[in-house]
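Record 1 of the preview.
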Amino acid sequence: MNKLVIAAAVVGIMILGACNSNAEETHTVEWYLASENAEALDAKIRECRNNPGELQNTPNCINARQAFQKRSTSGRFQKVEEPPIPKF
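->
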């Protein structure tokens, strides 16, 4: 009986190990924002948009979206002057 339990445990560990071997390394928002990782950010955004049903809530898609939003809104904005009020 003990040999059967041990064998089942070993098989279970092997199955779990196989499932986790396909997982990719999780990258932070700062990693995606680094200039040398710009292509990786664009590729991850495309991948996440192409399969949102499975990937939308994965850590890398969440971090890539946050980095993409920061990158998109980090530009300098010039102050727009309001037009003068016409006199009647």
